[in-house]
Amino acid sequence: MEVNRDKQSKSGRNSVLSIVVPVHNEQDTIQIFYNAIENILPDIDAIIHLHFVDDGSTDATLQILRKLSDVNESVHYISFSRNFGKEAAMYAGLQQSDGDYVAVMDVDLQDPPELLPEMLREVQSECWDAVGTRRSDRYGEKKIRTWLSTLFYKWINRFTQTQLVDGARDFRVMTRQMVEAVLSLSENQRFSKGIFTWVGFRIKYISFQNRKRVAGKTSWSLWQLMKYAVEGMISFSTVPLVIVALLGFISFFIAVIAAIFIVLRALIDNKSAYGWPSMVTIMLFISSIQLLSLGVIGRYVAAVFLETKRRPIYITREEK
Ligand code: UDP
Ligand code: MG
Q1: Tens of pLDDT along the chain (320 residues)?
Q2: pTM of the predicted model, to two decimals?
Q3: Distance, CA 106 to ligand 2 centroid (Å)?
């Protein structure tokens, strides 16, 4: 930003920090976010480039971005042809970013900008390749959401080698090297929380207290969050397939024992009309296992199907 550029020439700072900000219908928050960033400029030891990614907003978001980039040449934006989701927006922003260091941040100030200077210092000190953030609590969130996400982290960490940090946010600062690594995973169905862990590197986590968004409202419904959780599980683990195979094996084993039992019983005491309730129970049990297995396998087939189409992750309509 301009203010910073003047200071930069005086103090000889020469690194660039790109801040990637996905925005979807955020007309009420962009200006507040921009002001908050301007406020922390004196504490930041780098030139700042802002990269907004308009993820198919239908409100005045794009107009506001155009205006901002007209008055400040450090503000860049990409605008998608439709809503591609936050994951795609983050990918586009990382691609467009040019800094030695790159930060990813939400626009609603749920990612406190005042943490940014410290995060940058840690990465610049070269002790860490990335500094991530996690919420120490979930203040202001609906109970059901908190419960579901705790459950999600517990299970996904049990199922995958890629360990996810509970409460970790997408708010992070990375070196260029790590950004390139993240970009090299060009899969279509992106699950950043997993990708960021999968690429490795030395990551430090800073905790902060959860806060509510400053204005506007969240674009995520509970249903979308659940879909996101399933996608995460599918793209980072094949354990559900193992479980399904195990279920199949166990039910086969039970079936063999049951068959022997039934044949013996029919031979010893010839009352074959008995056992209708148990028959129905067994049939229901087996067919439900089959349906469940098909469902799980289907999810993986669908993932392969979507991935083989090699569709672009996003489509740009306008950029500056
Ligand atoms: N966002 C996006 N595309 C979407 C949904 C959200 O780019 O389809 C952006 C949104 O503008 C915000 C960030 O992602 O900057 C986080 O979204 P939100 O605050 O709605 O999610 P929450 O904090 O409730 O998880
Ligand atoms: Mg938010």
Answers
A1: 544 444 444 343 689 999 999 999 999 999 999 999 999 988 888 899 999 999 999 999 999 999 999 999 899 999 999 999 899 999 999 999 999 999 999 999 889 999 999 999 999 988 899 999 988 877 777 788 888 888 888 888 887 777 788 888 899 999 999 999 999 998 888 888 889 888 989 999 998 888 878 777 877 778 888 888 888 888 888 788 888 878 888 887 887 888 788 778 778 876 666 677 778 778 877 887 887 788 888 888 888 888 888 889 999 999 88
A2: 0.79
A3: 6
- Same-domain status, 75 and 200: yes
SS3 203: strand
Does the Cβ of 54 fall within 6 Å of ligand 1?
no
Residues 22 and 101 grouped into a single domain: yes
Distance 164 CA to ligand 1 centre (A): 20
Q: Ligand 1: which residue has its CA nearest to atom 13?
A: 106
Q: How many domains does the chain have?
A: 2
DSSP secondary structure, 158-183, as one string: HH-SSPPPTTEEEEEEEEHHHHHHHH
Q: Is 28 in the pocket of ligand 1 (CB under 6 A)?
A: no
CA-based max dimension of the chain: 100
Which mutation among 62, 77, 107, 108 tests ligand 1's pocket best, with the greatest number of atoms within 8 A of CB? 108
Can you tell me the distance from the alpha carbon of 90 to that of 108, in angstroms, rounded to the nearest whole number? 15
